[in-house]
Specification:
It is built from eleven helices and four strands. The protein has 226 residues and is an alpha+beta fold. One of its GO terms (molecular function) is transferase activity.
């Protein structure tokens, strides 16, 4: 059975959604990042970058959420667009991977988790997160799904991060991103999305952001200590 190493962060959740949509049997293995489990030797043997998600499918190990989505789509033949839409799908999927995810994640970091205020960094990442999300919103203005008029793995990738938009950009963000919100709501209504969201009930992940969690999640801060 396929093994799925996960937390409840945006990137693992989009893989969880694909697994639930496709009906692939899988074993969900929690990796508690606030306890530092992602840095253990057993896990870094799977992903040297020490990040979730990871899947192990027989003799094949795949890390990075977008690589996993592509791997699973090719494995199952599901949730890929028509051949003429593959190029646009790949372009937008890489846009999510190189833009939406990193800039939204850094916006969250400097807004909520930085050890001290950094106006320059927050301004940069807030600006870029907004810029990227507005590009997606404009793209969705005249279409239901991201490419090809059908629900694909790309919509799952957007959904994973769209769930974090209010935390990243503020509770009023949906007023400026109505089309992203429409896509989010449409995916949330799918039974598979409800099953994916229910992963939160399978394991009690550490909630406290204490010193142990900060060391595990932000090891770079140790370099600041004299």
């Amino acid at each position: 059975m396929l093994k799925f190493y996960y937390s409840l962060a945006p990137n693992p959740m989009k893989v969880a959604l694909f697994l639930e949509e496709s009906g692939l049997p899988y074993e969900a293995i929690p990796v508690d990042t606030r306890k530092g489990e992602q840095h253990g030797a057993a896990f870094t043997a799977l992903n040297p970058n020490a990040k979730v998600p990871v899947i192990v499918d027989g003799e094949t190990t795949v890390f990075d959420s977008n690589a996993i989505l592509l791997f699973l789509a090719e494995k199952t033949g599901q949730f890929l667009p028509a051949p003429q839409d593959r190029g646009p799908m790949l372009s937008w999927l890489m846009f999510v991977a190189s833009g939406i995810g990193p800039f939204t994640g850094q916006c969250v970091h400097f807004k909520h988790y930085a050890p001290e205020p950094n106006p320059y960094a927050l301004n940069r990442y807030d600006f870029e997160a907004w810029r990227h999300w507005k590009i997606v919103d404009a793209h969705l203005a005249d279409r239901t799904w991201m490419v090809g008029g059908q629900y694909t793995l790309l919509d799952m990738a957007v959904w994973g991060w769209a769930r974090a938009v209010p935390f990243a950009l503020g509770s009023e963000a949906w007023q400026q991103l109505p089309h992203v919100k429409r896509l989010l709501d449409a995916v949330n209504e799918r039974p598979a999305a409800r099953r994916a969201a229910a992963l939160k009930d399978r394991h009690a992940f550490k909630a406290e952001l204490d010193d142990e969690a900060r060391r595990a999640m932000f090891p770079q801060n140790e370099r600041l200590k004299g």
